[in-house]
Specification:
alpha+beta; two-stranded parallel ribbon; 4 strands; globular
C-alpha cells in the first residue's frame, strides 16, 4: 500500500449529493437520510485494514443504528477485479 497524503475533508462537512445502487440494486441517495445524522464510510472488502475492523464496525453500526445514526458504506472496489 502506498503512503499518500489524505484529501479527506474535515469531519462534519455536509455530504455532497449522491445516488448509488445498494447491494440489491435499489438506488440510495443522500435525500434518503435527511432525518438523521449520517456517517459515510468509503472502503473496499479486500483491504486488509477493512477485513481487520469488519466485525467491530458491524457491532458499532448496530449499536448506533439504535441511536438513530445512519451509516452508508460505499465500496471502492474495482468491480472487474473484485466483484464481491
Amino acid at each position: 500500500m502506498a503512503l499518500v497524503p489524505s484529501t479527506m475533508p474535515e469531519l462534519g462537512v455536509p455530504a455532497p449529493p449522491f445516488a448509488l445502487p445498494d447491494t440489491n440494486g435499489k438506488l440510495v441517495s443522500l435525500d434518503d437520510f435527511a432525518a438523521a445524522p449520517l456517517l459515510v464510510v468509503f472502503w473496499c472488502s479486500h483491504c486488509p485494514y477493512v477485513q481487520h475492523i469488519r466485525e467491530a464496525f458491524a457491532s458499532f453500526a448496530k449499536e448506533y443504528r439504535a441511536k438513530k445514526l445512519a451509516i452508508v458504506a460505499i465500496s471502492s472496489n474495482d468491480t472487474g477485479s473484485h466483484p464481491q
